[in-house]
Design a protein that fits this description.
Blueprint: H1 11-60, H2 65-139
Helix pairs in contact: 1-2
């Protein structure tokens, strides 16, 4: 796959297209990262439910010493899974915050680039082209 180079003939074009690239990159990478984290969270939630069920079964038979040890182990695993789920939730929030930051930077770069490109370069190129066309029409 060939990735085209960004134009460097004009700094404003470069800013504008770099901003677009940053926006697209932030949106895409956020979506990929969030889907991975959500998949992990689904697995953890499933494991948490299974352990919760096992805890309830063991609590019903808590009289025996060996079952009590299993119960403590299951409670520990349950609490650990709960911590992991909370960490994954925090990670999703961090990913979103950085993505929003990247999108804002990209939008600012993009707007700056396009506005400056149009106001400082494109207007004059359009005016020059218009004069050349008028000169050609007058010659004919």
């Amino acid at each position: 796959m060939i990735i085209p180079n960004l134009p460097t003939d004009n700094i404003y074009k470069f800013f504008a297209l770099s901003g677009l690239f940053i926006i697209i990159f932030c949106i895409t990478s956020t979506e990929l990262k969030v889907s991975d984290i959500e998949s992990d969270m689904d697995n953890l939630i499933t494991q948490k439910g299974e352990i919760e069920y096992e805890i309830q079964l063991l609590k019903n038979n808590y009289e025996k010493e060996k079952l009590n040890e299993k119960l403590n182990l299951k409670i520990f695993k349950f609490n650990r899974l709960d911590e992991l789920l909370q960490n994954k939730t925090k990670k999703i929030k961090r990913v979103f915050y950085w993505s929003i930051f990247g999108i804002i930077v990209g939008v600012i770069m993009c707007l700056f680039g396009f506005v400056c490109w149009y106001n400082r370069i494109q207007i004059f190129l359009d005016y020059k082209l218009k004069k050349e066309n008028e000169a050609l029409i007058n010659k004919v």
